[in-house]
Amino acid sequence: MDEIVSLTRDIENLNLADSFICAPEDTGQYLRYGNNSLKLLHLNIRSINCNFDGLLLLLHRIQSHLDIIILSECWLSKCPSLPSLPGFSSYASDYKSQNEGVVAYVRVELSCDVVFPTFDDANCLLLKIDDKIAVVALYRSPSIKNIDRFLNSLDNTLKQLNSFSTVVIIGDMNINIVPNSKDPNSDDYLNLTASHAMLPAYVLPTRLNSCLDHVILKSPFSAVSLVLDSLITDHAPILFCIAMSTRPKSLKSTTIQQDIPSMIQEIDKTDFSSILLLTDANYAALILVDLLASIVQKHTRKVNIPNKKRIIKPRITPGLLKCIRHRDKLYRRHKKENDNKILKITFTRYRNFCNNLLKRVKREYERSELHKAKNNPKATWNLVKKIANLNRKQSPTEELLKLADTPELSVNIANKFFANVGKNLASSINLPANSTTSLRSSVSDIHINSSPLGSMALLPTV
After folding, report:
1. pLDDT, tens digit, for every residue of 91-134?
2. Are the C-beta atoms of residues 72 and 171 closer than 8 Å to each other?
3. In the chain, how many domains are there?
4. What pLDDT score was predicted for residue 194?
5. Would residue 381 count as lying in a domain?
6. Cβ contacts of 275 within 8 Å, gap of 6 or more
7. Does 314 share its domain with 284?
8. Are residues 190 and 273 in the same domain?
9. Nearest to 222 by CA among 239, 236, 203, 240
């Protein structure tokens, strides 16, 4: 039961990736998540020794900050040592035949744990990032026709990753998953990944008219998959970019209410005998799903959420919201009855209690968020900026340089303005009519005696 609930939650939070075909030089037009994203490149390299120079040329053409590079079919049996890539750490899987092997290049500043799981009929590397993102890098040789052992190993690996909000399977599976594929292994493979709430990020062809290089994804975050039009080998490179955080959600004004007892009661009264008599299992399943969906829709309604019950910040609970509204209600009563001392004391005490409670909840929430991001320096600094309110847009200073014809004259005008602020304020003071003339003159004649820079002296001010 717990597995079903977990699977349902993952499916509800699932985001499908956008997919495109483009040249390596045009990837910047599609990678729209900025620095707060994870970028992976996969390439079936067909011997890392022979085609590593082609990979370097591809990286130069992409001109994007990649975090992880996955290479499959590396022919590790012919590669005693991995080629180095500046700024990256390298990891290699085991291999059995001469053309096998998976290699991962991980950027050195990325906090990542690399695991070498036992995998039947395939090469596998498992990358775990901040206990939130898991990347399963795979290569399955096409020489193995029976994929039962492969699927069993994949199923066991995915079961160990249920706690990760984002799971990515990436690599060359040699299973064609294009729509209406005639590959006999396609359905079993996709059914297994779907049972773990994972769907293909794209079904575009990566080798001739077949989609053999896959990105299978489970994530609540937005993602983009790019099939690059650059053939180093007979497989197209894949660039995959996923956002590391969700976009700000608009405030929900409605909620869905379902009358579960009425649904159960109507299902008990429904006659399913006509469906049981059908001989086509696929058609029977379609009719059953449509019937159940109509019952659910009949007893489901959309309800508007009142403004007083809408939660704006994640740390504010319904109880805290009620506390805030009661504090504001006491304040309005206190403003109307200023002479009521009992009401004043009641309001003051409740206000202090509510404000202290809100501050404590805020500190605990921020502490927990910092603890979650402790292994990710980028996320930690983003959180620090958010807490310290450092993300405010600052007014540009370039306008000050346009006050005159040249920047030098503009700077002189700005300096003159700030240097005379005190004098201008003093001269604008309107003194009473009976004030002495000497006082008026002393205000306008205030000056600061010049003295050598860095001197230490007490000079007369009059």
Report:
1. 999 998 989 999 999 999 888 899 999 999 999 999 999 888 99
2. yes
3. 4
4. 93
5. no
6. 284, 287, 288, 291
7. no
8. no
9. 240
